[in-house]
Specification:
The protein is mainly α. It is built from 17 helices and two strands. Strands 1-2 form a two-stranded antiparallel sheet. The chain is globular. The N and C termini lie far apart (62 Å).
Length: 326
């Protein structure tokens, strides 16, 4: 007489995580984690409050882009006007001029300021003398710790008509150049000062990413006959590619938000044709002219373009190289 043996699945291991076979997920797991690690979670309170107060709550004020706002009246505007202010700035030639200036400055900043920290990090990674490496790092990091006001002041004093640059040009018999008053020079001045201020600090992330690359990969490349350039191309750059893609997406997201403070400090009415950007135009329209609804409509338009850019860059990155922010 044969007896049938029922097959049963083995009991789950003690090391199985919650939700494994045969064990229901415990309820209130996040509460226990919060009680256990409340010191760590408390560190996120102030950053969350900062974003809530200065980033998310002000979004409610975007409603005045569709309502007529008068100083001293209702905080959310008096009358509903629909897309009136949107049509106003879309038909304003001055807006399209500052829009083109924003694209120019944002594009030049991305083209020059994004790859230079990568190149600098690769060069520093090849330096074998620790003293020289630390000296170059210290000198290149220093401008980051200077405020934008100091950087703008140094730039204006250096490039003034009686500044050291024009003095040096005079030694070679060249006539003085009005760098600050000439519109054609503003983009060069802005991008150059941005590179000087941010290039050294940007190398920190790439140098940290370089330390995660396995040395065995370099050894294998040397055995295969790869020289230093081929090792950089086939080992180093693929090793820091996730960091590069992440920072590129973040830079694309801020493409339209060209540095408001630096532009405001460096430009003047003579350089408006090339220096005036959306953020400074919004400042003059909203704060100086009290056209808050008009300025809010332009700012909302700029934010929508930034959202589209960062979403598109993230999608393309995920589909092409498999790295994305979300």
């Amino acid at each position: 007489m044969s007896t049938s043996v029922k097959s049963a699945s083995p009991p789950p291991s003690v090391e199985d995580p919650p939700g494994a076979v045969g064990r229901p997920a415990p309820r209130g797991g996040w509460r226990r984690a919060l009680r256990r690690d409340w010191q760590l979670y408390s560190l996120a309170v102030l950053p969350l409050l900062f974003f809530l107060v200065f980033r998310y709550l002000p979004m409610i004020g975007n409603v005045i882009a569709f309502r007529r706002f008068e100083p001293g009246g209702s905080m959310f505007g008096e009358d509903w006007v629909g897309l009136r202010y949107v049509r106003m700035f879309l038909s304003d030639p001055t807006f399209w001029q500052v829009f083109r200036n924003t694209l120019w400055l944002g594009g030049l900043t991305l083209v020059f300021c994004f790859p230079i920290p990568i190149v600098l990090a690769l060069l520093l990674n090849e330096v074998r003398r620790r003293s020289l490496k630390r000296f170059v790092q210290s000198v290149s990091y220093l401008p980051h710790f200077l405020s934008i006001v100091i950087v703008a002041g140094l730039t204006l004093q250096t490039l003034a008509t009686d500044g050291p640059v024009n003095h040096a040009l005079g030694w070679f018999g060249h006539e003085e150049i009005r760098f600050i008053q000439e519109p054609d020079w503003f983009r060069t001045i802005y991008v150059g000062s941005e590179i000087w201020q941010t290039a050294g600090w940007g190398t920190i992330l790439y140098l940290a990413a370089l330390t995660t690359i396995d040395e065995d990969l370099y050894e294998a490349a040397r055995i295969d006959g790869a020289n230093r350039w081929k090792q950089i191309w086939h080992v180093t750059l693929p090793g820091i590619r996730p960091t590069m893609i992440t920072l590129l997406i973040l830079n694309v997201g801020t493409f339209m938000a060209v540095g408001f403070e630096k532009v405001l400090l460096l430009y003047n009415p003579l350089t408006y044709p090339t220096a005036d950007v959306i953020s400074t135009y919004v400042y003059r329209a909203g704060v100086e002219s009290n056209s808050f609804s008009y300025a809010a409509a332009i700012g909302l338009f700029e934010a929508v373009i930034g959202l589209v850019l960062i979403t598109t860059a993230n999608t393309l990155s995920r589909r092409t190289v498999g790295t994305s922010l979300w």
